[in-house]
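Handout, page 2. Input:
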Amino acid sequence: MMAITASMVKELREMTGAGMMDCKKALGETNGDMDAAVEYLRKNGQAKAEKKAGRIAAEGIVKTVVKDDKVASIVEVNSETDFVAKNADFQAFVEAVANQVADSDAADMDAFMAEAWEADTTKTVKEALVEKIAVIGENLNIRRFEKVVTDGCVVSYIHGGGRIGVLVEADTDVINDEIKACLRNVAMQVAAMSPKYVSRAEVSEDFMNHEKEILLAQAQKENPEKPANIIEKMIIGRLNKEMKEICLLDQVYVQDSDLSVAKYVEKVAKENNANVTVKKFVRFETGEGLEKKVDDFAAEVAAQAGM
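Output:
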C-alpha cells in the first residue's frame, strides 16, 4: 500500500477543489494514483468537472502583437516577483520577444532561443535573455509562444495588464472596424470564460465517451431508483450543458445573455454583409500550471488531517 503524503493531498485539492478528507480518502481508495483519484472524486460528485486552474503561480506577463490583421503572436514570459513583472525594462523585453515571435518561423522553443535577437543580431534570443536576467537580477523564463498567420483576420485582447492574453482568428471576406470589434469581443469572452474548444466539431469522440461515463456514475449515485432510459436522458441533458460551457460558439455571450457567441458573430456578420467563421483561439494565462513558492501548506494539511 502506497503511503499517502500531505503534499499529495494538497496537489489533489488544488486539482479538484474537493475537501481535504475527501481527497485523502480518494488517494487511499486508488493507492495514491493521482489520475485515478481525480476520476474517483468526479464520479462521486465531489470534484469540480475540471482541474481547478489552482496552480496559477509564477509571476510575469503575456503580451501579443498583431501585424496588418494577418499575423499575430502571443508570448508568456515569467519573472520571480510581481514587482519585476511591472518593471518597464521587463515589459519592454517581453514586447521585443513578442515582436520577434511575429517575425519568426521557429516551430519550437529551442529553435526560437537559437535565433539571432532582432534588437542586436550579434546575440541569440537565449543570450539576450541571459543578459536581461543579469540586469534585472531575477530568474526570467520565456515560457511559451504561438504565432498565427491567416488569410482572414486575427485580433488580440489583453486582460488585467497582461495576466491573460488571447488571440482569435476568423475566416472573413470583410475586414472593417465592426468585424474587428466583434472578434475582439469574442477574444474577451475567451479570456473571461476559458472555453476548451471553438465548437463541438472539435470535441473528440473519446472525450465525449469519457464524460458520459463520469456523468453516468454521478447520475446512478444520485438517482439509484431511476430506470436506465431516464438516466440516459439525464446524461444527454448534462452533456449538452457541459458542451455549452466548454465550446466557445455554444457559450452564452457574456455581453448579451439572449445570444450565444455563434449568434452574436452571425448578427454582426449579417449587419456587415460578411461571412465570418471563428477558426481558432489561443489563450495564455500567466503562470498557468506553474508551482508558486508557498509557505509550508503541506505541514498545515498534515496537522489537520492527523497524518
